Amino acid sequence: MLDLGRTFLQSVERSPHALALVDGDLQFTYAQWHRVILDVADGLRELGLARGDRLLVVLQNRWEMATLHWACQMAGIVIVPLNWRAKPDELDYCVTDAGVKAIVYEPVCADAVVQSSAAQNVPRIGLDDAQGRTTSFDALLVERTHAGETTHANADDLSLILYTSGTTGKAKGVPRRHRHERAGALAHVAQNLYRHGERTLGVMPLYHTMGVRSLLSMALVDGLFVCVRRWNARLALDSIAKHGLTCLYLVPTLYHDLLSESAFANTDTSSVTKLGFAGAPMNDGLLKRLSTAFEPELFVNHYGSSEVYTFSVDQDATKKPGSAGRAGINTRLRVVKLDAKSPDDLAAMNEEGQIIADLLGDEAFEGYWNRPDADAKSLREGWYFTGDTGYFDEDGDLYVSGRVDDMIISGGENISPVDIESVLSLHPSVDEVAVAGVKDERWGQRVVAFIKRRDYVDSAALDAWCRESDLVNFKRPRDYVFVDDIPKSPVGKILRRKLSAGDYQRDDGPSASAAHHTETTKE
User: Start and end of every AMP-dependent synthetase/ligase domain (predicted)?
Assistant: First the structure.
């Protein structure tokens, strides 16, 4: 299999004059970008980084970040991208854990780098005069003569280490080889039916698997990657119209923001023919609104992770709302019982269990970085235990119901938040909803719905809505709490643990604080 450096060379050789990268007023064709990438790769080697060394990169989605990703693939250096919002202790951990040889960063995260004691022990490449730097990014950009072979990696070399955000405990490093990454990108192209010359919005962070996949997949089809440094719905709409973007791959939260932006109605988004989402379930209400607004020819629900890029895909997300479809091109999936110790302890059809994936899949990682404890928990008999809950329906389609840790156990019943959220999301006055378990003396946990309102609605009306739905009685929320915002991770995942812990801001509108209480009866 080709390594990723040679994968990029394919695009340079096929379409040297095609537009490859845009960041504001800066534009590169593939041939132009290739020369810059080679300069940066040589600059990293001149700093002392060799094949297999790790480079920590703490940047927003700017052209330098995308360039460094490809430069590392050319040089055989392992890129370790980290959230630019990282705190000093997180930097300390990742610098030490990954054994990085240098750091690249920018002013927005300079304070954290300066305050990280571990970061002071390695060269620090600063952009835009970032404080604490030992050299500048411009020093890497010196034009050089490139002769002979320009790639220094093979398909079995490590491409990157992604640190999982982790809702609890310290982050886990996920090392992925060139062949894992290329297989994931090829599958992404196939599963999203990308054509030659697609154009996408590069807004999902390049420290997250969705952002990396967008970057790699555009190179595979000689496409355009438009950098968006920090999410702004108005700027995203402007980019769609200005550059004729053809495909979007976003978390549901960002789609919600696009539709909520006042400029949406007056922006020409007709060039967008393919929508894809991942990172979190999309509720039924948002699915319907997006389908009406874009009328896409393809609407893909992609379910995956950093460890195994694709678990499953559904290429017609509105046909069976909530369905994650079937196993991806490179994947085998099972659902095992919630307490299963073996991958052979299968759950029955429509029985909620834990989703597991075959580690022989082309996209699957081989184990965590320096974490035998995490390996012991998640890797069993050749299968990756995802920690996600779900079930197969009678058609063989997968439904993802949440995390094992998010499962609400109320009165002895296992209750998934996702089913309840789907019902409440369809109420016209509900903008966003998240359901979580809150400690309760009688029931163990009480089902509570946290609502961000679009228009005024009270608890009684929402309870009546649930009673009139097909939601079984014991799953009905016992409380409704109205909030200003639903807490989410930087990539849009609902942080239910914060809701359970009371870490939210109430919406002080009329009757906002009046919670609706009902007794639980089993059905």
Answer: 10-369
- Listed residue (520, 514, 335) closest to 410, CA to CA: 520
Are 283 and 433 in contact by the 8 Å Cβ rule? The answer is: yes
Model pLDDT for residues 451-507, shown as the tens digit of each residue: 999 999 999 999 999 999 988 888 899 999 999 999 887 767 788 888 988 889 898
- Give the rounded distance of the alpha carbon of 404 from its chain centre: 19
What are the chain's domains? 1-182 (3.40.50.980), 231-406 (3.40.50.12780), 408-500 (3.30.300.30)
- State the DSSP code for 332: -
Indicate the helix (H) or strand (E) that contains 439: strand 430-440
Helix (H, G, I), strand (E, B) or coil at 349: coil
CB contact burial 362-381 (16+ within 10 A = b; e otherwise): bbbbebbbebeebeeebbbe
DSSP of 459-507:
HHHHHHHHHHSS--GGGS-SEEEEBS---B-TTS-B-HHHHHTT-S-B-
Cβ distance 135 to 108 under 8 Å? Answer: no
Please state the pTM of the whole predicted model. Answer: 0.84
Chain CA centroid to CA 346, Å? 28
Kindly report the backbone phi and psi dihedral angles of residue 236, in degrees, each rounded to the nearest multiple of 5, phi listed first.
Answer: -60, -45
Instruction: Quick: pLDDT tens for 183-219.
Output: 999 999 999 999 999 999 999 999 999 999 999 999 9
For 162-181, what is the HEC assignment? EECCCCCCCCCEEEEEHHHH
- Determine the Cα–Cα distance for residues 433 and 448; give it in Å rounded to an integer: 10
Q: List residues bridging with 336 in a β-sheet.
A: 346, 354
CB of 430 closer than 8 Å to CB of 453 = yes
Can you tell me the distance from the alpha carbon of 345 to that of 355, in angstroms, rounded to the nearest whole number?
Answer: 12
Alpha-carbon gap, residue 493 to 167, rounded angstroms: 10
